[in-house]
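User: structure tokens for this one?
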Amino acid sequence: MSKGKDDPNNTIAADNRKARFNYHIGETFEAGIMLTGTEVKSLRGGKATIGESYAGEKNGEIFLVNAYIPEYLEANKFNHVPKRPRKLLLHRRQVDRLTAAIQREGMTLVPLKIYFNEKGRAKVEIALAKGKNVADKRETEKKRDWDREKSRLMREKG
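Assistant:
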């Protein structure tokens, strides 16, 4: 049976759950990622982390920096470096737009998740984001607690 859109485990290799708490998320983009064979096999194992990673511009190209993809144990001497910068594959217009936003508006490119699409290709969802300050984080926490309490009350009522 082939994996499709309605696959329950939807092939997410890594997820950055703290990004929505630490940043105001703006526009999101889907980008391809240049990987070696052992990185793909390791990603399919689902042990990658992108919690501390970010994307940055270098020589007119966008790179994913500080993403940890563990070594593939069966690869032996042909393994990859776990935290190497990886090139993201975007259209030229998208690259120009993202670099302008990073430089002019002081925004950050944050990876939200790494996943495999329907064709089995590794993709990265990145977002233009602006960092939250402490008061914004507290407000997010209050809203989350209130929503949780509200759902409890609604369940008890009816």
